[in-house]
Design brief:
Belongs to the trans-sulfuration enzymes family. MetZ subfamily. The chain is of the alpha/beta class and about 400 residues long. Helices cover about 40% and strands about 15% of the residues. The chain has a seven-stranded mixed beta sheet, with helices on both faces. Bound molecules: pyridoxal-5'-phosphate.
Length: about 400
């Protein structure tokens, strides 16, 4: 009985929603439907010879220690690579472990990094504070104009690191233009893609060499675990990235990988719904008299609207707005909310509001804050899965108190 080959067995023929339910899955001899959780730090071998060949790297897909190879983590990595359209990926204990690995695995003393100055706090710290301690100089530039990257490049520049849209003001960096500049100087481009998500922005297709994620955000998306990912070519991932992970050990636990695999099953549903709601809320807030400005990539008021349409398939699940009346008004608004939580996570099923000036950007000087648009009245909203009408009503009440 010969079965004809169903073309849908090729993952390249499937859409993201389908891949996120099935992609990367491997069944144990028990034929479980839900992916198995392999809580094991080590593995035993049928013979000493097998063990010798495994340690020599001659056995494809073999496991010798869960610091750098675990079957549940493998499934998560493979599912993420399918989503990204990447040849390979490695999972990490957190988003910061992933970013630190991606950046530090590509440089050595004497090298130079160029990065956009509007970065997630921890990312900026790695580039601005840690890299120089190890003899790697860095230059931070205003990422909105690609010419600023070109001007900062030096012969010893090995890495260009960007985040787009940026935290918290949702400014954009032109990925394709910056990739061209980086490659012309022999440097690698690393893109932190958390704010756009793997569903709505494809940095590798635009020329990036490595893409990083905090899986803590939309991939778990339900506030349970931390995790991170680095994705790119097989050469970079199985070389520098894998070696750095193996030897420094910021490994994702099998349990967290399992939670994140389950998160990916509903990832596209959640991200699409949250993005639609964010766009709706951005429209509603833009028309409110107590709002100074709204920042949302796919809103026509965004200063880089044309780039946003070209580079991103949809807006974002986040929006930022400036309330009239400064910090006092921002606090009054936040404190009056009933549904939206005051917190600093993002990409969660629960809507979350953050006052960047006094929380995520507290460490920076007022001058550095204002340079990246973090004003006293600025609030960042991560839109969750609640009914958008309820969120708009909650914000409307908050605005009355502001
Ligand atoms: C959250 C976040 C990180 C860090 O991820 P953790 O999982 O918290 O370590 C890095 N970059 C961006 C853009 C983030 O939002």
């Amino acid at each position: 009985m010969s079965k004809k080959h169903n073309p849908l067995r090729d993952p390249g023929k499937l859409s993201p929603a389908t891949l996120m339910v099935h992609g990367g899955g491997r069944r144990s001899p028990f034929n479980e439907t839900s992916e198995a959780l392999y809580l094991s730090s080590g593995y035993s071998y049928p013979s000493s010879e097998h063990s010798e060949r495994l340690f020599r790297g001659e056995i494809e897909g073999g496991h010798n220690y869960s610091r750098f190879a675990n079957p549940t983590v493998d499934m998560f990595q493979d599912r993420m690579a399918l989503l990204e359209g990447a040849e390979a990926g490695r999972a990490f204990a957190s988003g910061m472990a992933a970013v630190a690995n991606a950046v530090m695995s590509q440089v050595r003393a004497g090298d130079h990094i160029v990065a956009s100055r509007a970065l997630f706090g921890g990312c900026r710290y790695v580039v601005e504070e840690y890299a120089p301690r190890f003899g790697v100089a860095s230059t931070l530039v205003d990422g909105r104009d690609p010419a600023n990257f070109a001007a900062a490049m030096r012969p010893e520049t090995k890495v260009v690191f960007i985040e787009t849209p940026t935290n918290p003001t949702l400014e954009l960096v032109d990925i394709a233009a910056v990739a061209g500049i980086a490659h012309a100087h022999g440097a690698k481009l690393i893109v932190d893609n958390v704010f756009a998500t793997a569903l709505h922005q494809k940095p590798l297709q635009l020329g990036a060499d490595l893409v990083t994620y905090s899986a803590t955000k939309h991939i778990d998306g339900q506030g349970r675990v931390l995790g991170g990912m680095v994705l790119g070519s097989r050469e970079l991932i199985e070389g520098d990235v894998h070696t750095f992970l193996r030897q420094t050990g910021a490994t994702l636990s099998a349990f967290n990988a399992w939670v994140l695999l389950k998160g990916l099953e509903t990832f596209s549903l959640r991200v699409e719904r949250m993005t639609r709601s964010a766009a709706e809320i951005a429209r509603a807030l833009a028309a409110h008299p107590k709002i100074e400005r709204v920042f949302y990539p796919h809103h026509p008021d965004h200063p880089q609207y044309e780039l946003a349409r070209r580079q991103m398939l949809a807006g974002s699940t986040l929006l930022t707005f400036e309330v009239k009346g400064g910090q006092e008004a921002a606090f009054a608004l936040s404190d009056a909310l009933a549904v939206i939580l005051i917190s600093n996570n993002l990409g969660d099923a629960k809507s979350i509001i953050t006052h960047p000036r006094t929380t995520t950007h507290q460490r920076l000087s007022e001058e550095a804050r204002l340079a990246t648009g973090v004003t006293p009245g600025l609030l960042r909203l991560s839109v969750g899965l609640e009914e958008p009408a309820d969120l708009i009503a909650d914000l409307g009440y908050g605005l009355e108190q502001a």
